[in-house]
Structure formats: C-alpha cells, structure tokens
Amino acid sequence: MRILNLMLAKGRGGLETMAVRYHQALLAAGHEAMSLGHPQGELARLTAPFAPIVSHFSHDPLAALAVRRHVSQFQPDLILCHGNRAIATAVHPLSGGAGKTVAIVHNFRFKRDIARARAALTVSRAVRDALHKAHPLLKIFDMPNFAPLEARPVKPAPKGVPVIGALGRLHVNKGFDILLEAVAELVRGGREVRVRIAGDGPEKVALEAQTTALGLNDRVEFCGWVDSPADYLSGLDLFVLSSRVEPFGLVVTEAMAAGVPVVSFDIDGPREILQPTGSAPLGGLCAAQDAGDLAQAINAAIDDWPATLARAEAARMAALETYGQDAGAARLSQILSSL
C-alpha cells in the first residue's frame, strides 16, 4: 500500500514520537510511506521520504491545498493522521483526502472533524469507547502504541535501599507532585527509599520546591532528560507511574521491557496494560490521585520482592510480545489491509 503519514504540529512530545514510529512501522511492513509535517519537527529530522507542510491553524486552506498536491503526486491508498490539526487538514474539502483519512486517536481530545474520516485507530479501549460514544457510525480499531523496546533482565531484589523511579514530562498531568507526597508518607512510616525522577518541563521549579518543603532533598534526585530510557529504567528497583490521566502510557511498557516492576495509578491506559483480559496482573495498581494508597502499593511491592519480581518477569515478556515495534508493525499492517 502507498500511505501518507501526516502530523502537522511541532513539539508535541509523544505524539510526534509515535508519528515517527508509524512511519518506521509502515516501511518495515513493506508499505510505501511518505511523511508530511512541520519543517522543524521530528518527522523532518527522523523520517524519509518527507515533505514539509506549514499549518498555521486548524482548517488552514493553504495546508489543505498542500496536502492535495501530495495526494495528487503520491497517489496514496490511505492518509494516516496524528492529532486534531492533521485530521482537520486531511478531511478539509480542499485536500481531496477525506475518503482516505485514517485518524490515529492518541487521547480523549478528538474533535468533530473526525466524523468525516474513513476510520479511526485508538490507543486504548477507554479512548475507543469515548470515541464510539461521540461518533457511533465511525469505524474504529484498537491500535495500542508500540515502541522499539529494549529488553533487559529482571534484576534481583535490592540488597540495600530500594531505588524508586519515574520518567516523563514534568507536567501537572503526570502527577509527580502526588509521587512526592507518597514518598514523604513512606519516609514518615520508616521506609528507606531513594527516588529518581527523569524528565523536564514546566513543573520543574514547583516540584523542586515541593521536595525541599517535604524535607526530601537528600532522597530525591531530578535527573533531567535521559538519552536512553532503557538504561535509566534498568537502574531502578521499582517504576512508579503517578499520572492523573494517561490514555495509554507507553512508558509503562518501556519499564516492563526493561525488567522493572511497575506500580501505577488505576487509570485508563495503564490499567489496560497491567491487567490484560484473562491474565494475571502484571504490576500493582492503586487508587488514582491518592498519595496514601500509592505509598501502600509501593510498600506492598517492596515487602514481597519474590512476588513483585515474578510479575516483572511476566510483564517483560508481555511487553515485548504485545507492544514492541515488530508487533506494532504487524498489527498496523493487518488493520490497514482491511480498509
């Protein structure tokens, strides 16, 4: 198949990353793929063939006309669209691509333009259900995120103070403030832990101030952005996801593949990953946005390392089989061929 891969915004973090991975997956599956996007975005830097398109706003007619030129020249069978702006552009009357548009829905913030798409792929059942409720006539397929996961062996139980870690953009949605409250509760209860938080973002100063206010400066390390998530994750004894909202949670699968036990809030994406239908739990889940319950879940994982590490080994295998790049490419190709 000939497929255009469209992502028009710049600096959208995970959305751009997944657009790149879709391009790579399409090529790996034997499709002819071309990406269109911001001239200074990740698609421009990491994919080929690529052509730049500048979109100043949703429904930008000039961007739609640019897409039309590529539709005419490339003659795609389908146009994969990441993000609301890409979807709005592809289904614009001037683009000539509405009947070929497949929306990749990464979160709950979809807009009404999606109703004009040929089909939609959703990253989790929760996103699928929300989209189906809003647009019951739209053809929808489950398409979890995927990544070139780096497998690492599960480490033995720590002999000293366990290292708890988190990874993500320092944004209020990621709930690192709740994690710090949970750590403070652990310390008050006599639990010795060390904490590493990798990432950067707008909440950095506030989180550092909170760490000081809670008296945790000697226990919490802010690591900044890390070049190799797998190297960082494999240095942890326990990975904690404390997000307030997470439509999927790719970092959970990265931690699983790295052999790190996972504790997460019981929210949409992580729940689907860690409690697969018909299988034993692959990690610990606790009440969302509840620092006390998170502290209890961390304690439970540390208090029973044999069970925690057994789950981590099962989780490692499940992540590679379900969310690895090859698995994602095969699943994507199967869906697209059905369209």
Automatic annotation (TrEMBL):
Record keywords, A-Z: Transferase
Molecular function terms from GO: glycosyltransferase activity
Pfam families cross-referenced by the UniProt entry: Glyco_transf_4, Glycos_transf_1
CDD domains from the UniProt entry: GT4_GT28_WabH-like
Domain of life of the source: Bacteria
Glycosyltransferase subfamily 4-like N-terminal domain mapped to chain residues: 13-135
Residue span, Glycosyl transferase family domain: 151-315
Name under which the protein is recorded: Glycosyl transferase
Species in which this protein is naturally found: Asticcacaulis endophyticus
